[in-house]
Specification:
By secondary structure, this protein is α+β, with helices and mostly antiparallel strands. It is built from 7 helices and 15 strands.
């Protein structure tokens, strides 16, 4: 949602709109004055909470700015996670420059292991910006077949749980798979999660020995994310299409 004003409305109003839209995240953006540290201010809200970082809603915002002629080239967004930039190429692909998530090995919380109901090989905390638990499973089929106890997962602290495994077929066009569950903030399963890939990129780059990888996320709905690990920054590349265009009519 592109706002005309130079400031965000009250957070409670933003939350009501996000709840009404009822998608994984609704992005709210307003332009910043010339000379500011960024071009647009950007916030992301799920149907139940505001989050510190969201990739696909940033991708969608950049897509709308470019396809409507509101912006060209590189766009800088002021966010809770600092200034994030997006750059669109002439084919419609958009590359986002995000901070790389710091990974810290942790013990698997029993509530998460029980809720997933499958072998867990390792677990990592992903730091404050992402706020998820990254869980490595045995293989691709284990990730695809997951049917977790979502009520139990909702009791786990943090934003949610990223599950991942190496791709079974190295020639299949992707290097790793993932699925992301955030029932604690109103999202049972997110179809594609850009922010999670700021953790998946360093995790799999360290194991596969390459900075540039392709991830496949999702079960019923899927999506590809190209990752390029550059130290403390991760480049995420994807594309978007406009499926609905309209105006929000609000009286307060």
């Amino acid at each position: 949602m592109l706002l005309d004003s130079g400031a965000f409305p009250d957070t409670a109003w933003l939350q009501r709109v996000a709840t009404e839209v009822n998608l994984s995240e609704t992005a709210f953006a307003h332009p910043l004055p010339a000379g500011a540290d960024a071009d647009w201010a950007l916030r992301w809200l799920t149907p139940a909470a505001e989050v510190n970082m969201c990739g696909h809603a940033t991708l969608a915002t950049a897509h709308v700015l470019h396809t409507t002629g509101t912006a060209t080239g590189t766009v800088r967004f002021r966010t809770r996670s600092g200034v994030l930039t997006t750059t669109a190429d002439d084919r419609g692909a958009i590359t986002m420059d995000f901070p790389t998530a710091p990974l810290t090995p942790v013990e698997v919380p029993p509530v998460v292991a029980d809720a997933l109901g499958t072998e867990v090989r390792s677990a990592h905390d992903t730091g404050p910006d992402v706020g998820d638990l990254l869980v490595e499973l045995a293989d691709e089929e284990s990730v695809r077949a997951l049917a977790p106890d979502l009520k139990a997962l909702a009791r786990h602290g943090g934003r949610g749980v990223i599950t991942t495994a190496r791709a079974d077929n190295p020639d299949g066009g992707y290097d790793f798979v993932s699925r992301c569950f955030f029932p604690g903030i109103g999202i049972d399963e997110d179809p594609v999660t850009g922010s999670a890939h700021t953790a998946l990129a360093p995790f799999w780059s360290a194991r596969l020995g390459r900075a540039q990888l392709v991830g496949l996320q999702g079960a019923a709905r899927t999506g590809f994310v190209r990752t390029d690990l550059r130290g403390d920054r991760t480049l995420l590349t994807g594309s978007a299409v406009t499926v609905i265009d309209g105006e929000l009519l609000a009286t307060d």
